[in-house]
Amino acid sequence: MNKKTQILILGGGFGGLYTALHLDRTLARHPDVEVTLVNRENFFLFTPMLHEVAASDLDITHIVSPVRKLLKHVKIFNGQVENIDLDSRIVSVSHGKERHHHDLEYDQLVLGLGSVTNFFGNSSLADNALTMRSLGDAIYLRNHMISNLEEADFECCPNVRRPLLNFVVAGGGFAGVETMAGINDFVREALHFYPHLTEDMIRMVLVHAGDTILPELDGKLGLYAAEKLRTRGVEMHLSTRLESFADNVVVLSDGTEIVTNTVIWTAGNAPNPLLDGLPCEREAGRVCTDEFMRVPGYDGVWAVGDCAWITDVRTGRPYPPTAQHAIRQGKMLAHNIRASIVGGRQKPFAFETIGQLAALGRRTGVAQIMGRNFSGFFAWWLWRTIYLMKLPRFEKKLRVALDWTLDLVFRKDPVQFLTLRSPSVSIDDKVPQRAYIATAR
Predict the structure, then answer these.
(1) What is the pTM of this model?
(2) pLDDT digits (tens, 9 = 90+) for 117-161
(3) pLDDT tens, 413-440?
(4) Where residue 88 sits, what CATH number does that domain have?
(5) Which one of 313, 342, 371 terminates a domain?
(6) Into how many domains does the chain fold?
(7) How many CB atoms lie within 10 A of CB 229?
(8) Is the separation of the CB atoms in 350 and 315 below 8 Å?
(9) Dihedrals phi, psi of 282, to nearest 5 degrees
(10) The domain spanning residue 222 has which CATH number?
(11) Containing H/E element for 115?
């Protein structure tokens, strides 16, 4: 009996998932090939729309797609990657509440483990700041903001109320600017439901180490975005770093101190720490590959997405860790894996950024498409149109489009999505209920 060729994909982000999607249509259908995707979640998260979940623009399930609906012929292992042994060609994984361990052998391995939040050694931020990388992060931030509003509405002491209504976002890139724009709109619109709170009580602060926000875009677009946010009540601290956050006090490098219980950190990413123990060459923590996305020195090992250092031969610089690059890397990688197994010519990865967009809330945005700048309503329309097209599955596209349509008519709902169990009691039927009541008093 011939042993099946085992293709193991680690990570279900843009790079890993799109590799799996293209293999699902080709090699995974072959009876002698088995493709397995290992991912911590059983869904794919469309991260460009994450801030809209936090800001209550979209339902929490509408930007996630179950991988078992997306992949028909690829096996799914819902669990954690514990260790990668490139010499023995074995990946150790675990799953379930009891963390049952398995060793998975592979013939072809795709490293698509993505990146994690980097606090750059600042323990006060690591211990206290919120992040915006996962669906859980967005839900937690939304619940946190609503909880603060509920508490502040009936808090009569200004010193106690102040940290509840001050919000700080660290990082002026795409994630930070879109998060700030979203939560600023959400909190200020939610004041309609809280009669004891007023606009002047809200303080929104964006901290950015550079002199212009959205440095990935043309400087004029960054200035436009900053001006739009300022007119909506956002306080800017540019060329400034967040030094510490402890005991509800934020200290900035310009000497400013802000009393708050909400700091959202979007200012740093690092490759998945699981890659640190790999013996292959790495650059800035990312796994180095050749132009075909192969890891030199290890036959059958590939890297894709945020954790891969793939050099653009035209510029000599690595491709940026963005979704549009990871999507196209996944497609090319699936082709190269197929060529390495069944024969054929592998193709080098070459791609030039088409454009970048950012939503600024209130139907405004900025966009740089094929070298041209757009701002205002048209850029916002481009953002929604392009990302809606990129969202997997027609069902999710329809649900998101419906959410956006209803958002034009109705106010956002300040509803907390709590996972607490409902209260209960355990009453012994041999003891009269009256006795329990008397005891409770």
Answers:
(1) 0.91
(2) 999 999 999 999 999 999 999 999 999 999 999 999 999 899 999
(3) 888 887 777 787 877 666 655 544 444 4
(4) 3.50.50.60
(5) 342
(6) 2
(7) 23
(8) no
(9) -135, 155
(10) 3.50.50.100
(11) strand 115-117
